[in-house]
Amino acid sequence: MTTSKVYIETFWQIHRMIEEAGLQPGDRLPSERELADRLRVGRSSVREALRALELLGLIETRRGEGTFMKPFGDHQLIQLLGSFILQGNREKRDLIETKMFIERMCLQLACERLTDEKLEHIARAEHTYDLFFQRVVEATDNYLLLRIWLVLNDFFEHVYTLTLPSEFYEQMWTALQKRSCEEATAIYEQYVMQKMSKAN
């Protein structure tokens, strides 16, 4: 097996190990030596694989402490991919359409599953669209939807800036308090969809 193939295979082996171990942001990875022994590869291959993960911002090395997992939203993969795949108008249009579809679905689920604790969590969100809506998506209790939304939103922010008036947050908060999916969707369509449609 060529050196490059060994390095790529080691990259995916480390990725699988991270998933199987359930490592979370802030958790420490085994040392280069431990990884090499566990995966039965040379330390140079482990070093190259870790360097690739660090380049993408998935892990960080702290001098004298070791290598640690980084929060999902901190990595640079979205920016790197966005630079290549969001070149044409069709791709940008598809991104906006998919984001709006996912967000309307999340609003409906959030209204159905909102608790007083989740409402309080949303109330404490800053009046910036990404932070506010992330709290809404978190209220769905669907981790996969949250991961999908985070990726879509990162792609979107790579291309567009969405600024909404304070009225949007006030009206959306009132609709969420009433658990009214109809009102929340109407407010979303009035403010967000119209703004995104103009960005397209």
TrEMBL record:
<keyword id="KW-0805">Transcription regulation</keyword>
<dbReference type="InterPro" id="IPR000524">
    <property type="entry name" value="Tscrpt_reg_HTH_GntR"/>
</dbReference>
<dbReference type="InterPro" id="IPR036388">
    <property type="entry name" value="WH-like_DNA-bd_sf"/>
</dbReference>
<feature type="domain" description="HTH gntR-type">
    <location>
        <begin position="4"/>
        <end position="72"/>
    </location>
</feature>
<dbReference type="Pfam" id="PF00392">
    <property type="entry name" value="GntR"/>
</dbReference>
<keyword id="KW-0238">DNA-binding</keyword>
<dbReference type="GO" id="GO:0003677">
    <property type="term" value="F:DNA binding"/>
</dbReference>
<dbReference type="InterPro" id="IPR008920">
    <property type="entry name" value="TF_FadR/GntR_C"/>
</dbReference>
<dbReference type="GO" id="GO:0003700">
    <property type="term" value="F:DNA-binding transcription factor activity"/>
</dbReference>
<keyword id="KW-0804">Transcription</keyword>
<dbReference type="InterPro" id="IPR036390">
    <property type="entry name" value="WH_DNA-bd_sf"/>
</dbReference>
<protein>
    <submittedName>
        <fullName>DNA-binding FadR family transcriptional regulator</fullName>
    </submittedName>
</protein>
